[in-house]
Amino acid sequence: xxxxxxxxxxxxxxxxxxxxxxxxxxxxxxxxxxxxxxxxxxxxxxxxxxxxxxxxxxxxxxxxxxxxxxxxxxxxxxxxxxxxxxxxxxxxxxxxxxxxxxxxxxxxxxxxxxxxxxxxxxxxxxxxxxxxxxxxxxxxxxxxxxxxxxxxxxxxxxxxxxxxxxxxxxxxxxxxxxxxxxxxxxxxxxxxxxxxxxxxxxxxxxxxxxxxxxxxxxxxxxxxxxxxxxxxxxxxxxxxxxxxxxxxxxxxxxxxxxxxxxxxxxxxxxxx
Length: 272
Fold this sequence. Notes:
This protein is an all-alpha fold. Helices cover about 65% and strands about 0% of the residues. It contains 13 helices and no strands.
């Protein structure tokens, strides 16, 4: 830990990212080893990993879940700290005008880029128990702490967006096998947060990834996704109105995208 902390300090003193694959590999291996040691603080290790991520990025696989991702699911204060690295307080966003705030330093830009990468690829939702099921009480305790800390930092809305994104990755219902689970539907109903639901909806589109289609193909792929989300909406009991409407909105958005793809294909047919 002492050697790794020294590495963090030295790399920070350089003021710019270091591109060295061997260094990144060695740091990553050290982090893996430290994560297996029972007497190492996982929170401190996650913070160290975050500080080293500019060097580690080239060694990471797309979507790879890191120490910090698993720690975010257990530590809401760390989650808010990462949100603060990426987003300014809401009051500053509302009052900022062009040229009325200091220029962003390279070090701050680098940390914001790393924070964006961490939150973008977070797939380890809070509230999941040892059996892989979503636990209502555990999730609500985490949410209360995270949203409370975000309120203190004046970042409630952006934190809710990030929360919604990771909630998309919660497990299916252990009884029915449906998604959203009854637990998630209940949580969305009680949160009554448009920002959480918006974050979930955006993540549903972002996680699709890269697609391919023939030049004259229309929106059949998107129409199939719309059908999947319609089925999900229909499976949600009527009492969970917010979960049902969220699924319906995602289905409607995919249907709209399908129509746009149909129109583009029709235009290409006319040209060719």
